[in-house]
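Amino acids appear as letters; backbone shape is given numerically. Here is one record.
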Amino acid sequence: MDGWGTRSGLDGPAHGDWPPGWSGRDEDLELLCSAPLLDGLDPPDVTALLPAFRFATVDRDQELLTQGETSAPQVFVVLAGRLAVTRRHQGGRAVSAVLGPGDCVGELSVFDPGRDSSAVRALTAARVAVLCGQDLLEWATTRPQAAARLLHVLARRLHHTDAAVFDLAVLDVQGRVAIALVDFAARFGEPDGSTVQVAHGLTQVQLAQLVGASRERVNKALSDFASRGWLRQERRSVVLTDLARLSQWARHQPAPELRAAVPVAGCASATGDLKPRSRRLHKSG
């Protein structure tokens, strides 16, 4: 971004061009500028907001927001690690979303302040950028392009929620697990040759909560995918060994009664080549 000077002695091992008032690391600047909240904005709009960010390193299981508490609205942008959005229920606490680098949380409270409706907890050690809600509101109300960008972020959140409700209503457990893993791979998977490492940071129980199923049903789905050679399970992570077939499964599920004979619609099976089937979606517990 043109017009930024050079600074040294700040929180980072190397320093290039810095916007005025910036106090973060080089890698923080790059990630923040590519995050949905700022991506695509003109440099003057970006540089007007960057100095308002503060930075924090959080330990695993540390809580950033507590459900039910009333606090000044804050927006968190994940720079490294994983955060979980959770909500209390009669049986305890359930995970409703997993956030990785570039994701943000808390922006809804800027426009609907009050008690926090969810908690945010670190699944892994993490680094976050923190923005006061009032700073975000003042920035958006004085810059039309920034306001439009913020609306885009909120609209994306709504679309994601709609998709999650749809998946829960019409997909079975295997379909929901496949979609969750493909989503993780797209957002924070790390390619390693022909495989993709997905360090989601979730326990088996938390992954089951995320897809709305029992731990036993989710483990059965993961074991089935592993037996097909599509993934390998590791502690709080998976290695996707055939992301293409897992993605195809997520998009084109055959009917449950055909799954024993049809590994993936349109893929070769032990019985020979199969023609693509039309998508049929089924719901089960």
